[in-house]
Amino acid sequence: MGQYVAPIRDMQFVLHELLKVEEKLKELPIHAETDADIINQVLEEGAKFTSEVLFPLNHSGDREGCHHDAAAKTVTTPKGFKEAYQQYVEGGWAALACDPEYGGQGLPIVLNNSFYEMLNSANQAWTMYPGLSHGAYECLKEHGTDEQKRLYLPKLVSGEWTGTMCLTEPHCGTDLGMLRSKATPNADGSWDITGAKIFISAGEHDMAENILHLVLARVPDAPEGSKGISLFLVPKFIPNADGSIGERNPIFCGAIEEKMGIHGNSTCQMNLDGAKGWIIGQPNKGLNAMFVFMNAARLGVGVQSLGLTEVAYQNALVYAKDRLQMRSLSGVKNPEGPADPIIVHPDVRRMLLTGKAYAEGARAFASYVALQIDRELHHPDEEVRKEAGDEVALLTPIIKAFITDNAWIATSDAMQVYGGHGYISEWGMEQYVRDARINLIYEGTNTVQSLDLLGRKILMDNGAKLRKFGEKVRAFVEENGTDEAMSEFITPLGDLGEKLTKLTMEIGMKAFQNQDEVGAAAVPYLRVAGHLVYSYFFAQMAKIALEKEASGDKFYTSKLATIRFYFGRLYPETATLIRQARSGAANLMALDADLF
Ligand SMILES: Cc1cc2nc3c(=O)[nH]c(=O)nc-3n(C[C@H](O)[C@H](O)[C@H](O)COP(=O)(O)OP(=O)(O)OC[C@H]3O[C@@H](n4cnc5c(N)ncnc54)[C@H](O)[C@@H]3O)c2cc1C
């Protein structure tokens, strides 16, 4: 069923040539020893594990799905998932970017990020089981007590136990302030938690011996709304003091959802009936603590979509070289055959290049943000840590929404390359489209991401974080502005930077009169910002490729062609997006709800 070959050459280009990670990691004492050899070795081993172990389970996992046994209250994952997870744990993969204090390998997040791209290309549904554990690890590490860290972190790090995030309830998803799950205190410091959660990914399964649920609930007399939410650790089995498995906690899966994609991942309704939990952080400060998890997960969702874009593109490319249909408009290209391969047709190339450009742009962008997270966590200079953190905060909603929107386009195009064969399930292409669709919805819908970007991260901050990022773009434009060969990339980059600044000010002014102006502009605004970020990275990559093309290495020729395609065919949508963002709230809000 198709193929997956990890794009190691492009990953190495991004890590070594574009981001110069080895040099950057030397600035971080904890990662100073992570050299190019270690990075390349992890990429190669990761490529083997993902393509040989996980990829073969992708299509079968989609077909089989998960099975819920209502009487036993258990969930069985598709055939082979459990064994693959065992191999993952034994290979030490869960521990890759975790703290050695808890048994981790202490490697940087930027490297883990590349490994996660491979995992998601190979099998997104499977990857969500360990993927959520990493978020739980980050959250507990930052907000857990010493005892919680001692008891739980080594198990999460080894992968013996997995984690979940239990936020959503039937009546509230985006608006978590309305959640109703209740926590009542016990004399021993624990809490009894009662409530119903829905849509909980990896909420119940058979892959690990224990599951640690991070649950949002309200303590007695909590303030209304989001200010009254607390976070609790609710293990499926309550561990004994020595870490061994103890009593079963009453947090059970009532049903699993039938859904459009990611069938191999169990999406569970979870019922808590006086389940024992332990508070993480302070009462009523749960959302604050959960944000650590949510931010990690938002980068993770972007990388899910990057993985799907890459694998869908790869398969479409193989097919387009093989499938013979019609003759090229500009003359026969395959005289020995009854027709030409479809890759000769301009529009098939457009679809392939869309996938290639969106994969390569997302890879550069996500790797950059992952490296900034390493700097935010470990740079010895407080000022650098803060600047990196501000940039990560600004770019996170763009990572989540822009990459996932693009993957929806790219997987759909990849499917289209197959014609009718893409729509039937035999070739596996329609699965990528179905799997990609959820990424626009969960972890805060893409609309919510755009409101976070424009409202919270930009306007409420008076544009400070955006200005800082803009200074980097401007410096690059100035540095390369007189280079003739770079002008085809620098001109659109500089132009879009100016337009985005103007657009931001315009919306900010309108928002003083009417806050709906923010909601009306936010979605196209985020796409414009996404294109500014991609233009910035593509222009940097073009500079390297122009310098190295003369070496004869065709990788750089291919890179330049992709970048030219991006600026010629994808970037121009910014003109329409800016018009949409400027068109204001009136054309959306004029119609009375009864008149729709
Ligand atoms: C397969 C799957 C897995 C999931 N995994 C998890 C999980 O592991 N843990 C978990 O807790 N949850 C999980 N979720 C839930 C997911 O995060 C929510 O579905 C999502 O946050 C949206 O909430 P909702 O479905 O209630 O939609 P609603 O909040 O009801 O939103 C409906 C629509 O209104 C829009 N909307 C809402 N408010 C605004 C606003 N202010 N401005 C503009 N538009 C707005 C939304 O963007 C959306 O389009 C999962 C969901 C699915 C389908």
From TrEMBL:
Where would I find the Acyl-CoA dehydrogenase/oxidase N-terminal domain in this sequence? 82-160
Q: Which residues are in the Acetyl-CoA dehydrogenase-like C-terminal domain?
A: 471-592
Q: Where is the Acyl-CoA oxidase/dehydrogenase middle domain?
A: 165-273
Tree of life domain: Bacteria
Q: Which GO-annotated molecular functions does the record name?
A: flavin adenine dinucleotide binding; oxidoreductase activity, acting on the CH-CH group of donors
- Name what cofactor the protein needs: FAD
Domain (Acyl-CoA dehydrogenase/oxidase C-terminal): residue spans on this chain? 284-451
Q: Catalyzes what?
A: 3-(methylsulfanyl)propanoyl-CoA + oxidized [electron-transfer flavoprotein] + H(+) = 3-(methylsulfanyl)acryloyl-CoA + reduced [electron-transfer flavoprotein]
Q: Which UniProt keywords apply?
A: FAD, Flavoprotein, Oxidoreductase
EC assignment: the record states: 1.3.99.41
Q: InterPro entries, per this entry?
A: Acyl-CoA_dh-like_C_dom (IPR025878), Acyl-CoA_Oxase/DH_mid-dom (IPR006091), Acyl-CoA_Oxase/DH_mid-dom_sf (IPR046373), AcylCo_DH-like_C (IPR036250), AcylCo_DH/oxidase_C (IPR009075), AcylCoA_DH/ox_N (IPR013786), AcylCoA_DH/ox_N_sf (IPR037069), AcylCoA_DH/oxidase_NM_dom_sf (IPR009100)
Pfam families (alphabetical): Acyl-CoA_dh_1, Acyl-CoA_dh_C, Acyl-CoA_dh_M, Acyl-CoA_dh_N
Function as written in the Swiss-Prot or TrEMBL entry: Involved in the assimilation of dimethylsulphoniopropionate (DMSP), an important compound in the fixation of carbon in marine phytoplankton, by mediating the conversion of 3-(methylthio)propanoyl-CoA (MMPA-CoA) to 3-(methylthio)acryloyl-CoA (MTA-CoA).
Similarity comment = Belongs to the acyl-CoA dehydrogenase family.
Protein name as annotated: 3-methylmercaptopropionyl-CoA dehydrogenase
Q: Which organism is it from?
A: Pseudoduganella guangdongensis
